[in-house]
Amino acid sequence: MLKIAILNQKAGVGATTTALNLAAAYQRKQRPALLLDMDPQARLTEIYKHTGLNVQSSLLDFYERGTAVANLVQPLRNGLQVITANHALSKLDSQFGRGPATLSKLNAGLGTLAQQQPALTVVMDCCPYMGVISLSAVFASDLVVVPVTTDYLSIHSAVRMDKALNALQPVLKRKIARRYLLTRAESRKSMTTEVEQEMRRLFGQELLMTKIGEHAALSESLRMGQHVFEYDAQSAAAHDYLALYFELQDVFRQLNRQPMATLV
């Protein structure tokens, strides 16, 4: 099982769009994919709400009632699987705190699911703040993908994310693998080039080569309640997300060739 957390503390960077379409790219390549909506705003859940999802069954049941992760998985008609979210997820911080038992619980739950679906790729759409939910995703993840829009303010949010992930490493006693993904990129704008150059200077090879362009197909597909491959599999947006899929395969191969870095 691969577990990818899509996370930035800055909202509006295309995290939900990236989570949905990356999972769809995996599914298109015959790799089973599960979307885990971990945002109390439930934007990912809203996209497919019209398909008859049971929105009363959500990730909150895993924490409050001990419901097995496998029992929360709902199939979508497009072949993807989803665990839904709702606004009540925002209660987790006040209910359970940030102790090790709480933060490691999701990883344990996904470990049990991995025994049933070992080939599954889990894509976690995280909320834009470092509360219990996002921290749990980081603790469970094999890779954190940080979407960054091509504007100067987003560079500062990427630096904050880098510092936050580095601060968690002593707790986990390992390096947190992360990659930065430029979104809403417009090649004809000089700002895109300037932001990419600065991100490359700051993060080196942790900045992905793939960029997600500012495509009308992305907003239109969400409006239609579809991922971009359902909407138009030949679109430039679909090609961007397939490129992201292939690049991440290289990233995972590189990570697996390297011994796990531990912190002492």
From TrEMBL:
InterPro entries: AAA_dom (IPR025669), DNA_Partitioning_ATPase (IPR050678), P-loop_NTPase (IPR027417). It holds the Pfam family AAA_31. Residues 3-176 form the AAA domain. CDD domains: ParAB_family (cd02042). This is ParA family protein. The lineage of its organism: Bacteria, Pseudomonadati, Pseudomonadota, Betaproteobacteria, Nitrosomonadales.
